[in-house]
Amino acid sequence: MIRNQWIRALTLTFMCVSASFPQSLLAAGPSATAARSNSVIEVALQEGGVLEGQLVDSQQMPISEQLVRVHFQGEEVASAKTDGEGRFGVRGLRGGSHILETAHGSQVYQLWAPNTAPPHAQTSVTMVGAPEVQIVRGQYNDGLSSLETLLILGLIAGGIVWGVTANSGDCNCPPE
Predict the structure, then answer these.
(1) Are strands 105-112 and 41-44 parallel, antiparallel or unpaired?
(2) 138-166: per-residue pLDDT in tens?
(3) Which of 7, 16, 28, 78 is 20 to 30 A away from residue 157, measured at CA?
């Protein structure tokens, strides 16, 4: 009877522990791709607040005749159309965090006024667009991981052990 109580106590402990934190064990961390795509790129503006850049596809081929919009504090402050080489230029920008947006995506840039940029800042922008690819961010689960499977099987086994030991030998029922 004492052995059955120990088995029940251990089984109950395992079931409670495995049911209380499997999601924290199975949660994915932030993806390196997402962090990289959301990083801020520092760019030094030329005299007159000029920003020059090029829009290319994933094979580095220029994307021509595309509108590039520049947003500052939620407002569109400038726009330009790419030429045959995918190049564009806008004037009159000031330092600060800007979003450059095209039909193929957007990117955050920290623009620096002339002669104020840190040494590592770029002098122009290269935006990579992929018109043939639609990016959809989400989660996909194609089955249970081995840890999920182990936890579920442990819970099932624990329930069976609990049921068997609860009804084995410690009942003072009259014989039938």
Answers:
(1) parallel
(2) 665 566 567 777 777 777 887 777 676 66
(3) 28
